[in-house]
């Protein structure tokens, strides 16, 4: 199976390396990470580019989204994705409108110096524009329309997202909830072997649904 990994803000491709190493029989590709040179000033613009790129794929794949990457995946919940076999959503909020933790994160980003963003390969103004855009997102109405099987993953120490993960799994028709013991927000980095094992389980689960 081809796994297309959508990273969170500021997360580099290297954090998926151990996950990929634990999946020798599968293809793991880190794609569509935020790059300041692409000049995105809105989440919608970014998500549209991701969707258009996915439409070009001619082989079966699964989307694996972490945090913001999960939001990118959810943005396509009500759109046709012919070759997508399922989604894995880790540490993914589905509603940022009125989310206090997210608002606090936005305030923290505002006081971080621009040169720090440059080290991350980001443009501070563009990041703040996207964060402002994200603050109005609410995918609640899309969840019941999601036809794909979805595995929702959350680290047991990701306290900000545990309740959301349970709600998310409850609202999606074909879903499984997996809590990884000892994992934090970046559970793919904290528990790479266990995360990879869940991706293997996802492949088997999807295959069983197609019988």
Automatic annotation (TrEMBL):
Keywords: Hydrolase. It comes from Streptococcus himalayensis. Pfam families: Abhydrolase_6. Residues 4-197 form the AB hydrolase-1 domain. Transmembrane segments: none annotated. This is Acyl-CoA thioester hydrolase. GO terms for molecular function: hydrolase activity. InterPro entries: AB_hydrolase_1, AB_hydrolase_fold, Carboxylesterase_BioH.
């Amino acid at each position: 199976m081809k796994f297309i990994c959508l990273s969170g803000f500021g997360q580099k491709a290297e954090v998926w390396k151990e996950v990929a190493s634990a999946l020798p029989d599968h293809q793991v590709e880190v794609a569509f990470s935020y790059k300041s040179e692409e000049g995105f000033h809105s989440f919608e613009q970014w998500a549209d580019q991701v969707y258009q790129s996915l439409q070009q794929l001619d082989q079966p794949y699964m989307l694996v989204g972490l945090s913001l990457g999960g939001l990118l995946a959810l943005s396509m919940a009500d759109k046709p994705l012919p070759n997508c076999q399922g989604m894995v959503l880790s540490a993914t909020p589905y509603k940022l409108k009125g989310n206090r933790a997210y608002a606090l994160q936005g305030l923290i980003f505002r006081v971080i110096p621009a040169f720090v963003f440059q080290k991350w390969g980001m443009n501070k103004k563009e990041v703040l524009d996207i964060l402002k855009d994200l603050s109005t997102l609410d995918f609640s109405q899309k969840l019941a329309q999601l036809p794909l099987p979805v595995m929702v993953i959350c680290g047991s120490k990701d306290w900000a997202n545990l309740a959301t993960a349970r709600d998310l799994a409850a609202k999606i028709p074909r879903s499984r909830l997996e809590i990884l013991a000892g994992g934090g927000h970046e559970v793919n980095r904290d528990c790479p072997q266990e995360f990879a094992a869940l991706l293997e389980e996802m492949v088997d689960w999807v295959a069983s649904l197609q019988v």
